[in-house]
Specification:
- By secondary structure, this protein is mainly beta.
- The protein has 2 domains: 13-118, Immunoglobulin-like; 120-195, Immunoglobulin-like.
- The protein has one helix at residues 2-22, and strands at 26-29, 38-44, 51-56, 61-66, 72-78, 85-92, 96-104, 109-118, 121-125, 128-134, 141-146, 152-158, 163-169, 176-184, 187-195.
- It has a 5-stranded antiparallel sheet with strand order 4-3-6-7-8, with no helix packed on it. Strands 12-11-14-15 form a 4-stranded antiparallel sheet, with no helix packed on it.
């Protein structure tokens, strides 16, 4: 029975990832010489949780928007007034975060790098919290549970697993607001659960 549940969970994670990948954004550069410093971003079937941010190399947000419940999203970025340098276009939804590194120069714009990170999926059922993470880099994953006084109540490191699954039972916990911290490489994710 446990193996059936585990296989079902793995299939659910892979399906969620496939659905997330089906919404792959498209980033285009214009080839028109008069308009060479223009970037066109398109996202088919965004979710209402999808956030788009355009940030400079100092961390200042130049543009920010949530897509809402649109069937498709498109945005044209005129980069002519920006200084030369590196900028970042971040696209984040429930399942993943994609960061494009963009270089703006006098004559044109170049997409230098695309970094995609899958986020952990948290599911609450009663006073239990289920965590699933597709750990494509198979890095060590550190999980902590803290109470509202920042006391660590639980800590575990899962080493080099492709699929990380964890069920955290709060059924016998005292009333409090708990925080689950998941650290995967350089990335840290938080999920709060209120027990009352």
């Amino acid at each position: 029975m446990k193996s059936i549940i585990k296989v079902s969970t793995v299939i659910a994670i892979l399906f969620s990832t496939a659905v997330g990948l089906a919404k792959e954004p498209m980033l285009l550069l214009t080839t028109n010489k008069e308009d060479a410093r223009t970037l066109i971003f398109r996202l088919d079937t965004p979710t209402k949780e999808t956030a788009i941010r355009f940030i400079d190399n100092l961390g200042n947000t130049i543009y920010s928007e949530k897509t809402g419940s649109l069937e498709a999203y498109g945005k044209r970025f005129d980069l002519n007034k920006l200084s030369n340098g590196y900028y970042f276009l971040e696209v984040e939804d429930t399942f993943k975060e994609i960061v494009y590194t963009i270089e703006v120069s006098e004559k044109d714009v170049k997409i230098k790098e695309k970094d995609e990170k899958l986020k952990p999926i948290f599911r609450k059922k009663g006073n239990k919290l289920f965590l699933n993470l597709l750990n494509t880099k198979e890095s060590d994953v550190h999980i902590k549970v803290m109470d509202s006084s920042n006391r660590i109540l639980f800590s575990e490191t899962i080493e080099g697993k492709l699929i990380v699954e964890k069920a955290i039972n709060f059924e016998n916990a005292v009333e409090d607001n708990y925080t689950v911290v998941v650290k995967n490489g350089k990335d840290t994710y938080y999920e709060n659960i209120l027990i009352d």
